[in-house]
Each structure stands twice: as C-alpha cells, then as structure tokens.
Amino acid sequence: MALGRAFSVGLNAFTARVVEVQANTSRGNPGFSITGLADTALREARDRVRPAVVNSGKKFPELKVVVALAPANMPKSGPGYDLAMGVSIAAAMDEVSVAKVPSTVFLGELGLDGAIRSVRGVLPCLVAARRAGFERAVVPMANTAEAALVDGIEINGAHTFDEVCRWLDGDLALDAGTPPDTEPPGPVADMADVVGQGQARRALEIAAAGMHHVLMTGPPGIGKTMLARRLPGILPALAADEALEVTAVHSIAGTLPSSRPLIVEPPFIAPHHSVSVTALLGGGTGIAGPGAVSLAHRGVLFLDECAEMGAKALDALRQPLEEGEVRVSRRDGVAVYPARIQVVLAANPCACAPAHEVDCVCTAVARRRYLGKLSGPLMDRIDIRVRMNPPGNTALLTETGEPSAVIRRRVVDARAAAVDRWGDRGWRTNSEVPGVALRGEFRLARAAMRPVELFLRDGRVTARGADRALRLAWTMGDLRGADTPDEDDVAQALLYRDRGGVA
Description:
By secondary structure, the chain is of the alpha/beta class. Helix content is 36%, strand content 17%.
C-alpha cells in the first residue's frame, strides 16, 4: 500500500477552495476510482490520467487505485484536477520527488498524450491558493498570462506532464510565460458620430457618471442602439481591484482572450432579445455558471428591443439591480456571482414601430400591452427614462456631436467626486448609496427636498423611486461641480423618472 498527495483548487461558483488530492494504491482487483462528489467530467479523468501518465514515461500501478478529493462534501466539477491527480499517483509510486508538492497547487487538464490543456477559472483559483499560503503554482502554459495577474505566488507554466515530473525532480526549470498585456483594447465607437439627440446624450452622460439605469424609447432607426454602444467610450477605466474581479468572472465563464487576460475597460454585454432567464442570470447542471448579468459586472448590460423579451426574463433583473449580485439555486447548491451592472434598455413605442408616429396603426390598448412586459417593479428601478424623437434634416447634415473623450473627462471628474464622498464607506458610485444614508447623514436641505415631498404626496413616485431620484440628483450635482444637489437637481431627477418612456 502506498499513498501520494498533491493539491489543487476547486471552484464553487465564484468561491474557490483548496482541494487535497490523495492517491492510494493497494492490493485487490486492478481499477481506478475517484471519490469526493465528482461530476461527470471529473469522473472521466480515470480515462485521461492513466494514458497521460503512461505516455509520459511513468509507471501506472496495476493495482487498486483510489483517488480521494477532500473536502469530500464539496461538489467538484471540471477537468482542472487532472494534473494534481497525475502528480499524486506518480508520488504514490515514488516516480517523482515530493519536496515541492506541499507548497504547490496544480491546475490543468491532461490529454491522453500527456499534454496539459488550459482550464477555466485560473485567476480566482490562484487567489485562493495564495490566501491559503501556497508558494507556487503549476498551470497550463496557455493560462500563464492570466495566472501572472496574481501577485505573491510563483507561477510555473508547463506543456506536458513529463515537464512537471522533471520539474519536481529538479531536472527542468518551468517557464513563467510572457507577462500579460495590460494595455486597453482598441478604440471604441465615438459619441461624435451621433448628431442631434441632445437630451438622450445628456441622459447617458448622467447615467455614466452615477452608474444609473436608462430606458430609451423611440421609433426604429432613431439612434437608440447607436447611443448605447457608445456608452462604454465615456465610462472610466476599471480600478485595479475591479479589473481583477471582472476578469475572474470572465475566467470562470471561459470568455477571456488568451492574448489579453486582464479586462481593464467596463464590459459591454448585449444579449439577443430572445435570451432565456438561464442565459441571463446563469445556470447549468450542478453549480450554475455565470450568465450575461454577471459577465456585465462593473459594466453595461444592453437589452435592445426589450419589449420583445420574455416578461420572466425582464423581471428576473429586479433582484440583481437591487442587490448587485445574482443568486442561482441548482442541484449542488446556490451560486452567487457579482452583478453590479448598469442596465440600458431600448424599445420601440409600439409593435408596428413606424418611422413616423402619425403612421402608427396600433390602438392605445395595443401600445400599452406592447410595453406592458416592463413591469412596474422593474420600471421603479430605472432611474432615467428618455423618449427620443427624430432629429431634423438640418441636424443630420450640419451638426457634429461632442467627442467621447470630452464627455469622459466630465464623467471621470464626477466619479472622483463620488469616491471622495462615499469611498470610506465602501461605495464607489452614487447608485450604490443606500437610501437610509441619503435620508439620514446626507439628507439635503428642506428646500431641496421639496420636489420629493410633492411627488410622494401626489403618488407620482414610490419610496424606492424617491431614493433613486436622490441618487440621480447627487450625480447631477457632481457633474456641475457642486458640493450638494440643489432643488433644481432634485426636480430634474424626478422628471427624468417621470418622463414618458413607457406608454
């Protein structure tokens, strides 16, 4: 009987945890079994690890082999444990030196030829390994750029299982890979391309400054999608910790580009209007994976033709918009992913959607029904509603829009003012500030609060809507450089919520 061990890291949704991989060989009928709540992909490792070890020139025991993944009560999925299993079996057979094993985590999928293939979630896994006190990690060479984003742990990239064995024996030095490219991506579409629509442009600037949610309605071809796709160009770059958090989500989803593993700009996610609740929030068997809402974390979720979406999918946004995270229950537990997003909705005013409103053939009931999927509770969470009208011919031919770079400077200054005010309390944007703070410690002067009192008295705004209007007013004050919002800011914020975005 012989026992070998190695360490890997398992992901449970957005939470990573170190897993001890023990391999035991004993007399009995030859076989290979895996214990520890393994899913199908992990159980199939039996058919990958054996040929990978043999084809790498190492002996595989013709005995009863049991591989245990501890803790046993933690669900485990994916092929990322293959390399650690191979090392533990080789250690049990005294095929490799084990001096480096206790301080090393091993991540990677093994091919039948012994090649080590890339896996998802390397970034959050290595953060957990560093937190647990591990000194080094062995990862697939294809994942080294992503792994290098984690400071305080030695990164070793390997192409094959044989290289890992030789490294453990001290006969080979593994390559740390090339440093990650942290340069921002290429230029994005510019707001200067948009002519006219001054009201909508101003609304998006306010939304960007405070990370507020927006609904744009208007006839087709008026520029709703064009404006939304230019919103990332006026958003500030992600802070260092935000970039790592966003990158971790995309790493788990497997959407990170290998050449540019660090996401430094706010993501822009635009699912098709036929998107399901599962694709929007996340799902899958076992533990749910991240959906579009989490992929848009710290960025923009653009829902074009939102009135064509299913009502259940739209209402599923209510909890993420309120709490900034997604909780999805599946067979193996509840997956929690961050979802601090900025939602931009775009819709036609009715089903027939003519270019000119006078040509509409829809009845008043049909128009109401068309936008009826945007429920009251969802709309109560939308801070800005903009009704867009066609620009005049003169505007299209003569006007030029303000460039994104100019608008972005104003947005960055407004965001900086918000961080100076709320930063020590953990809030980075005005949209994150809880209502109790706005009505308590940071309560505005009575004169500034007068419009809110009038709207509440007339039933034109709910208590939640009043809080959201105050957040919007703070953003408008930041954009004009004021220390606090005044009565005009509050009144305009309430009007942005009260405008005819929905028929």
